[in-house]
Design brief:
This protein is an alpha+beta fold. Helices cover 33% and strands 23% of the residues. The chain has one domain: Gcn5-related N-acetyltransferase (GNAT) (Aminopeptidase). Coenzyme A binds next to helix 3, strand 5, helix 6, strand 6 and helix 7.
Length: 247
Amino acid sequence: MVIADPGQELVRIVARSGDDPSPADAAAALLLRRRFGVSLPPPFVRLAEGGAPPPVRAAEPIDVPALGAVRWRSTSRGYRGMVPDEVLASETPSPPLGWWRDQVTGAARPGAGHAVMVAGGRGSVVALCWLGPTQPWGHEVRRPTETSDDVDLGEVARFGVDPLAWGHGIGRALLAAAEARLVALGFGHAVLWVMEANVAAQAFWEACGWRPDGGRQTVHAGRGVQVCEVRYRRALGPGRSSFWSGR
Ligand SMILES: CC(C)(COP(=O)(O)OP(=O)(O)OC[C@H]1O[C@@H](n2cnc3c(N)ncnc32)[C@H](O)[C@@H]1OP(=O)(O)O)[C@@H](O)C(=O)NCCC(=O)NCCS
């Protein structure tokens, strides 16, 4: 079979496989890894039984299709009941693979202090985090204005763990590494936005030391649906003002 786009092919296999792929789909995913070197997401990679969380590392271009797949699997399960099923049922990863590629390679905003991190040994991705300076998002409907105190403010802008890996400490380990990366990038504080209805994620952020700061915004979730998000914040340590003056 001729495979024109291995990334899209992997996403198609993931979308139809659920947590229990057929032997043919499992073989097809492994073939993509062998032939094209792409990393695989769950359910094609599994956690070590009772083992330590997988390593956290910077994402590489070979991780891009798995990144899109893990993001899709994580939100389509994690946002159930909060976002209409028809929005979650889309088999097109959002953001699309090209967006992730640009973030991972730095093509999107060269030198702008962003990072994409993943949990997973080389060749596998089970969780992802995208971080950087606070985002002037294109999709918000209403958003509060940041204050001048927020000059060293970073953002954990996308964060998700594959559902097959929930509850194993992987989110906590990835977040600790992401916070360290934000500090290394010069940020003294960080924020993130979480859906008001996403009480499980809010419990996670609070267990990891983040607290709501009163910020609220309304964003487009797709297909004309709007959802309310609340902002969480955490002090990370001393910021470096040279980060801003050096750009
Ligand atoms: C929220 C999410 C990132 C948590 O990841 P995880 O790897 O399962 O979390 P961990 O196992 O590292 O849990 C760390 C702590 O968070 C808390 N926590 C995690 N999931 C929780 C849940 N569903 N309900 C209540 N508390 C939870 C626990 O107290 C846990 O502490 P413990 O070690 O004392 O039990 C994951 O469920 C996810 O990706 N959800 C879907 C996408 C999403 O909502 N992303 C966040 C968008 S803002």
